[in-house]
Amino acid sequence: MAAQVEVRAPAEQAEGTRSQLQRWLKAPGDALREHEPLLELETDKVTVEIASPASGTLLRIMIPEGTEVAPGDLLATIATASATAGDPGATLPGAVASASGATSPSSSRAGTASYHAAAPRPAASGSAAAPSPAVRRLLAERGLQAADVTGTGAGGRITVDDVLGTPAGAAPRAPEAAADLQPHSAMRRRIAAHMVESLRTAPHVTTVFEADMSAVLAHRARHRAQFEARGAPLTLTAYLLAACVPAIRAVPEANSRWHDQGLELHDAVHIGVATAIEDRGLVVPVVRDVQALDLFGIARDLGVVVARARAGELAPAEVRGGTFTISNHGVSGSLVATPIIINQPQSAILGVGKLEKRAVVVSEDGVDRIVVRPRCFVTLTIDHRVMDGHRANRFLEVLVRELASVAN
């Protein structure tokens, strides 16, 4: 009896998200080593390599590239090294599924599926050896279909050379009004779907305050070198995370999740920090248990996850479980952004605008005078089902007070 191992999509993913199978790194019939990279999955947050769970031979690819997958979906099957070595029931390298695409109950035994041995053949639409994005683009440019081309790559996969060696067909029909159609990346599609779903789910309301950052900048100037010498880059965002803790304690609803049966209030404060990735979009790595950290601990943990985000090294666990989010859009010059879309299933998101010097009126000993202070706009966008405007105002009142009174 052939011993087979299933490869399934990870069960632990970000809340409610699906993934796209971005790329297969092996083809049916290829030899595999345990822990060797087998495929890439991409979500709106991270790209993850899935390793082979066993050594042996890749029998069958169940999901072609570019296909949406859900947690636990069956992606492929592997014949283990022991099965391919001597078991008469093992499937031969290069085997493909039966035409039905399903396992026959009458011919299946524990750990064994029904397959037919076959030589690699040209890839058909929707087959396991589906063309790569580059090949699909070249096919469209030359007016060809995948069925017009004989694939010579592994598992019958169509290569660029295969397409170039096939006479061009009819010119493709392009949208008349579009000179250049830029395909959406998987990440951009998922971000778009997540944003639309958030707006459909929650009524968004935004309140705006202005924060004086004089005390923060003075404290940072005194302590920045010391923090960096200890391995913690002291950014303005670290101060914002620290100030969110007393604000959340004053308004616990800001750190909650809406359920039809009631409001789930989180004790732990796990703050996601929206981080722009060049040419890819936004990811939101999470700094965990901010309520238990001092400023140094916040700066250290924040520096680690942001660096990993920009290097494309985030693990799925590092973008899961956030209870509140900060979007520091001011780093790219924005003064105010409203509404900032709530990162579902959270209930609120803090927006921070560009820090700049502004002329303000202050009163001292009954005398008004104009001074120049470093200030920025801060916004809180809330799920109006969860709280009302006066509670959002209370949150920002506490946040602004904390920023203005940073101790030496």
In the CATH hierarchy, the third-tier topology of the largest domain is known as Chloramphenicol Acetyltransferase
Strand content: 25-35%
CATH hierarchy class name of the largest domain: Alpha Beta
CATH homologous superfamily grouping of the largest domain: Chloramphenicol acetyltransferase-like domain
Number of domains: 3
Estimated structural class? alpha+beta
Main sheet characteristics = 7 strands, mixed
Number of strands: 21
Q: What oligomerization state is this entry in?
A: single chain
What global shape is seen?
elongated
The N- to C-terminal Cα distance equals 72 Å
CATH architecture of the largest domain: 2-Layer Sandwich
Order of helices and strands: EEEEEEEEHEEHHHEHHEEEEEEHEEEEH
Average pLDDT confidence is: 81
Total number of helical segments?
8
Radius of gyration: 27 Å
User: Helicity range of the residues?
Assistant: 10-25%
State the low-pLDDT regions, or none: 83-128
SSE layout:
Elements: E1 4-8, E2 19-24, E3 31-32, E4 37-42, E5 47-51, E6 56-61, E7 67-69, E8 74-80, H1 81-86, E9 96-97, E10 115-116, H2 133-141, H3 160-164, H4 186-201, E11 204-212, H5 214-229, H6 236-250, E12 256-259, E13 262-265, E14 271-273, E15 275-277, E16 281-283, E17 286-287, H7 295-310, E18 324-327, E19 348-352, E20 356-364, E21 367-383, H8 389-404
Parallel strand pairs: 14-18, 18-19
Antiparallel strand pairs: 1-8, 2-4, 2-7, 3-6, 4-5, 6-8, 9-10, 11-21, 12-13, 14-17, 15-16, 19-21, 20-21
Helix pairs in contact: 6-7, 6-8
